[in-house]
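Retro notes - structure team

What went well: the batch runner handled both jobs without manual restarts.
What didn't: labels got mixed up in the shared folder, which is why I'm recording both outputs here explicitly, each with its sequence directly above its tokens.

Job 1
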Amino acid sequence: MSATESYKALVKNIDTSDFTGTQVLCDLLLAGEKAFPVVVNTEGQILIAASQYGKGRIVVVAHEAYVSSSNFTQFIDNAIKWLKPSKDSLVGVHEKFSSMVQSLANRGHAVESTYNFYTKYGVYCMHAYDDRQSSELIWALKAGHGLLIGGQAWYWMTKNKLKNVLFDFPGNKVASVAGIQFFHNYGFKDMFAITPEIPTRPLIAKYVWNVSEDGKQLMNGISELHIFDSGTPSNLLVHGERAFPLVIDESNKTYLAACYYGKGRVVVATHEDQISKSHQKQLITNLISWLDAGRDGIVGVQRDLYELQAHLHEHGFASKRSDFNKLFSVYCCTSYTNNYAQKLQEFVAEGGGLLIGGQAWYWASQNPGIDELINYPGNNIINHFGISIIAGRDASYKLKKLHFENLNEKYQCRRALSQLQYALDNNQMIHAPLSSWIVKLAEDCAILLSIGENDSQTFHSLKKTLVNLLLKFGIPEVSNDRRVKRGSKEAFLLRVAAGLRNTLPNFENLAAKLVPTSITLPVTSLGSLEINGTSKGNEAWRSTGFYVPPGKIAKVNFPTAAVNMGLEVQVGCHSDDLSNLPELKRPPIVTQRYAVTQTTLHVSNIFGGLLYVIIPKGCNLGQIMISIEEAVLAPYFKHGETTQDSWVETIRHYPSPWAEFETENIIFTVPSDVVISLMNPSEPLLLWERIMTAVFELSGLPSQSDRPERFVADVQITDGWMHSGYPIMCHLESAKVFLDYNDLCKGTWGATHELGHNQQLSEWELPPHTDEAMCNLWAIYTHENVLEILRADAHFELEPQNREQRIEKHMERGAPLEEWTEWLCLETYLQLQESFGWGPYIKLFSNYQNMVGIKDENIFKMNLWAELFSQEVCPAIPSSSPPPSAQPAIPSSIPPPPAQPAIPSSIPPPPAQPAIPSSIPPPPAQPAIPSNIPPRSLPFHQHSTSPCIVCHSIQHSTSPCTASIQHSTSPCTACHSIQHSTSPLQPAIPSNIPPPLVQPAIPSSIPPPPA
């Protein structure tokens, strides 16, 4: 029976609960996935609660007097019926409630008065002040018996001030295992209405947990944390009332957390190596000691955690590698399986310690569109305790260990939300520490709100609180004219609203209250289309030509073959997350995804958006037919399929606010009002197709991609005027230029620069030097070969005088490598291109596409590039043949080299170079450098070998090219005599001699050779 069904059974035929008697109530605390409130007063205090544990059920009332009160006869009758394992179960009533016996008998229950619990009782009614039979009662509850407990803890606490009410109060020794605890706060009394749905569980008790001693024990002796030496972690959502963070970063992401649950304790790590590797030995020792709670029991270790078990043995812990066993004091495991989930929850509830670790980002990457908070295996275990592992892996690497004396100044989701709710309700300004939490809080709350509907009470109250906040304060207006500051209440509400999905109950009614209804768009009853279900490369978005209005629900129908194949439906294309920008012109997140887990999918977005089908990497479904209902037609022009007449007469007038234009290799998403006057989309699209052909040509790729590039225009993006990625994002001002043929013919540097970024491969990149340099090769190539715009005219930085000045200044400063970036870095690659043409680049980039195992080290990649490029410009010469002596022609624009200094008479000249064998062709003539380009100033390095003129040992040398004939002096590496050499530009290094280390420029610390 679900919690909702259980609640309705408990309050059947009841309109109000009368707590107006003289008895002083206490407050009840709830935790876990099964416990839910039945009666909550106007102060947010729980007075009656219910839960399930194992096969049994429990009801708790915050004072024993109300259990036998005539005002609660109907409720007690409902509770007994709900608690009974069978209709004819015998009810045992403690002698303290003797007045109940006759009342229950009158309502048809088999009942008897007793002083003790016996297993013959299907239900046992008792007070909360006797723990003699707590172990038997826990066993009975787990086995399927029912318990009704009444009592209050405030008076007990006055007599036991040094004790912990949550652990030591007798009633908590039983009820806590089911997630219900008596608390010592006074409960406010009055007449309270019974709500139609389960009341909202209060966010947080009006009590500060003192965990300073726990924190000191857990972090004892730790001055440095090596979290990121232990694999790439995920991070945690800490949402339980008795859960607290241990390790966080500067953006309030949590990497290690702990909690109390029932009678036990839990620690959660965000990677299994954090709890098993030897460099974490002090942390591991602390965690195990805290979890063991002084029992000195046996520590069970999952079988594959060998290092952890070895560490425990080394440090004197009794341990055993084993599957889970309830006799362990502590059990250590990973979060990659939900084996023993219920047994582990019961183990902790009854006093055990659990150490669990793992990351969720890999699981999320393999299960796109599936909610990790509910479906990730480890979360099936730990959600119950108030801690969840989420898939994020974007750590700041700036960690801080918490100082537990000021825990309330550290971020914890439930506590932060409680403070924000109070500030919103009372129209207060947001101050520290809440102001430093609110961005992370908004992110966490959006995750919580997007959880699909389920019976978990862990998240029920949090989701309900967030929905109530949105209904009360609405979704703030945001635009270029009404900007919203980061960290404000308005920014919080905008971010949380992104979590609203049609999986929420009554979503349409909720959306109707939140979304303005001034504009109503006509929807189609049914539209069918065929989409490409194959993507050999990366994830691909397939346009549908439909738009989902804000807050409306569209229906997408798939063939059976597409179900559970990793496909998703996405509503919205503006995929930049703006949460970290100082101010917002639109909501920070405006896209929603839904996994295709059934043939019919209902999808929505509170902000609206174009509808796409997402094809995962490696999917090979071929063409699939889908149909779409209750969506709005969008202006969508697909080159080669859409006719100009249909565009002009019909399609451009479709009511969606966003339009799309697609060719074989590129797609543009722009506001519809920008293109309403566009009469002939084919003209600019044909030009774009030529540009894309040139982009792929330079990259050495086929001229057709199974994932067209995308440009999406947005009112605000995360960075710059445009930025690369999929999609490439740009500002609205760019939208019209993209599809204006005349403007396009004048040049489109920004767009081709970003397309170049998307072609860059880490195998040839030398970060940070080439990051903003090599991408410009594609901009130059497309401008010169498609738009017929010379590089000097395509960008002012490429004007000859600017290039020359930039080189001269760099050489004057000694050519420091750290300055070799952007345009200066590009110069090196341009000089190669201007010397050898585009052919070597095209062939080299093509070869790089298939290379694997290249070290991610700049020096290695520099040398590899120099070697491979040299092989492209000059084929290798057989090692048995001497190098060529023929000198390539010197372009007229390059001055001749200085005269060769005389060789001292005491040193014989080097032997004459033998002739090139006739079977080997001479090297190609050096191409002329265009007259409008300054001569090369950055050195192109030459490699040579020669015998020492004194001792005849072989010398290897590297020297910068001076355009043709090379002159150099150097000491012999064997006898140190000075060598003078003159040699032509070498076409290649003989294959039997390894190339020396090549640098992009001569370091300034090396002096020039003597005259």
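Job 2
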Amino acid sequence: MQTIGKTVLQTELDASAISPDLQHNFIPVKGRDEAIPDVDELAWDYLFYLQTYRKNDGGLRKKWLDNYGHIDAGGWWCPTLDIINGERSQWGCFKPNTPRINRDGKLVKYEHPPKEPTQPFFLEITKERYWSIVINNAVQPEVPDQAGIPEESFPFAFWEIVRQVPEIPIIITEGAKKTASLLSADYCAVGVSGIWNGAPKQKAGDGTPLEKKLNPQLEKIATPGREIIFCFDNDDKPKTIASVTKAIQSMATLFEAQGCTVSVMSWRDIYDEKGIDDVHAIHGSDAVDQLVGERLSFDDWQKLMSKPILKTQETTEEENERYHQKLIDAERIMRENDPEAYTEVTSRMEKVEAFTSTPLAPVSQYDPALAPERNDTAETEDLEPALTYQEIALRTIYGKGHYLALHNQLYAFNGTHYEQLIPQTEKLKIKAWAEQYWVKDPKTKRRTLRYLNTRSINAIWDWALLSFGINPERVNPPGLNLTNGVLRISWQGRIPKWQLCKHTYRDFYLYCSKVSYEPDADPSQCNRLLACLDPAPRTALLRQLAAAFDLQTIRKLHSRGIKAAIAKGTGANGKDSIRAAISKIFCNQMTGIGLSEFQTYDKGKKYGLAPLEHSLVNWSSENNMGTPLDRVESLNICVTGEENGLWIEDKHEKARPCTPKGIHIFNTNQLPKLKSGMESLLSRFVVYDFNKTFKHSPNLSRGELKADPRFHDDPQFLIQEVCPALINRLLEELINLANDGIDYDSIKGGLDELQEESTHLWAFVNDVGLEVAPEGKIWVSELWERLRKWYIDTGALEVEEFENGKTKNTWFEQANPYDRNVKGMNQIYKRFKMLFPKIKRVRETADPIAKGRCYILGITFNTSNPLPHNSDKSGVIASPTAPPILTLPHSSIEKGEGENEGSGKATSLAKTSSEAVSHTSHKLVNFFSQPENLPEIPEKYARASFKFALGEIVQQKSSRRYVEIVEYPGIGFRFSNRTYRCRWLESLSSDPEPTEWINQSDLREID
């Protein structure tokens, strides 16, 4: 099984005993069709980074595409540092998931950028790791000051420090993983990509071989007086041994020429593992310390490797037969002739090289008891493969029973469900096994408790988590795991079916409810519990809870059909009692994540929502109402069930994607804030109003009901008397939910209240009938005038007029201190866009009369009050096309045609039909045909400031002509703030334009 909570790369690195602080040197690389979170680069981007690999159009050349197609399966990449130039090198090593086979039929496990010189592996380490290396090597050098070195610059500073301190020995090993493993054991290590790549062969331009030199990067650290320790693989093949020997001798000579001392690590006949990382992973860091402590000087190692080695495994039977036959012939000739003939024969005999892994002991010291046993009749292919100590411990401790591992936790099947085991208890079991598992030490020939140490116990525990890993999608399948069986849910089209089945270890439930399934349970107590809600919200709540049985299927039947609910009630209203009963049914599949945790998630802390990964019902009992619901993006993702929409993480673990699969209910004492548009409100949230009150001594005249404390405080009462009937009720509503969905329109009043509680502008929207309309258009000035009048009508604004025509506005703030009044036309667009996010502000450019005025596109009034517009729509997004709204003195309008706002004030005429427009135009002609009959007001009534309303008809004092106010000057406009843009109602041939900016002082009211 795959490791849960760890990637394949992390598992591989853990198998090489690479510490977490060094694992960032190994970068996961995705395949062409593979999706890895936070990984975008392909293997091609790493291996073929030079332009020489590519054609002029940037594409790779065909030969590379043909030869390296296997890297499309992905793998991992390990880069290196360029310690000479102090920068990260583009060169590195790539390990493909599907290696290719070379011409010799061998797997090429590692790939490097082709045609590029190889580089040593200088890995990035932290300051803490550096000090561990210094302490572990028992050196107290004069280390340069590190206090001022930034964390991001330390990897380069570290190698510079190492270069300056020759007291720190450096181990040369093969490969990036072995390098990281030695660094994890607190040894300074540098890796080479191959045994010969530390000092590769070089040729001149004419092909003449050049003198060997150390790689420039290695030469940088070859400080005089430094000890260089070689630590290459422990191979059994004689040819490989000979090749490794020559490679070490070649590089050792070059290091010694730089003033370094050389030594070699060897574990032949001590450990069977091939690489030093395997030794580290299986035997622990103590084994590495032992091998370093017992390293051989270069001279002693050369003497050891110069002795003959018996090549028993590599010598074929034919070679042995031929050799022994020649010995027999030589002995026969010697007996028949003289010793000279024997000497002549033996000199002509073919010499056979003999190799051994250890020096041959003198014959006098030969002990047959220590000789390995031979079994010529045994066939090795029939033998079972040797098991690691981790597997042996796993089979011994966990051989019986059924287990699963999920997110670094181990679970055991207890007959009803998988119960989580305590890691510390399990490690004590492993320790008890290690105390009885004796192993013969190949070096001392004594029996030891080799695995009785922390590292081995942790390795066995990690192996158990790896072996019992399971796909998270198989955990907690649809249905309910109850105390008397599993209530399975199946579907026949839109009809749900359920059946009670026996518990089995094949159902990976992590919970078991104490409630039992009783089809004939008495519903009386359940009905008392549900009486706290009116019929409409009660049905909606039951169907929402029923959806938790199989939310994935319900979402397929009703797209976005399950909303998040706000359970509103001021206390002692029954919502907590229903929540308590539901918690008994769903057990630990019910969570209580509140709104504050969602807000924290949106700020970047992802571990707060980790319990939602397997939650079927999220019902929070207490919530902070200071956060607007529509500003919590993570909650919106949970409501819609976006696939892999959440990224959650446990502490000290890497984040992982999660698909929310639960319903959400939030208990509140007062309604939360909400500022977004109608569409997002209606599609994601609903309000359940718990408006009843339960008391021990109820006052029936107030509508209070008798309280029963057992519903809240008696778990056994809920389990035995309430929950069985509640399950039956939920199953009934599951059928209705699948067929009809949830009727949210019947409880829409709570949402309206939620909107109005959030901002008073929703009350204005509902009062004046403002609604969303993609082609709707409203002048900004008109919307402001309506809102201003609404403020006056609702008491939020009082306007006091003085005899000189001036006015004073007195504003009264809303009850909510965060819900501010709109006190100017310049605030209209931004405040209403918070309610209707899709609206746009457009400036009229085509209509010569309304040119320059702004209107809002996307909303309209649902009353007979259209926006004036012009049929010519050129030059604008959308242009008004109806006749303009004209503001006439109330004395000129028949009773009932307008709304009288007071004596001497203008009244807005708003007609939508063509008949009304024609009637209005006729009255205007009659009105302006005899302007000399209109009385003039005294000069003292000439008003200052912005007193004239848009659309109001006034008189120009200098010309006695009548004009209509069509625009106020904008902020920063070239005219003063006491100037109006006016449209002439009497056209003259001398007027070059139908409109003109006129000062306040030259305008007067008409009466």
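One thing worth noting from job 2: Residues 317-364 form one domain.
We'll revisit the folder naming next retro.
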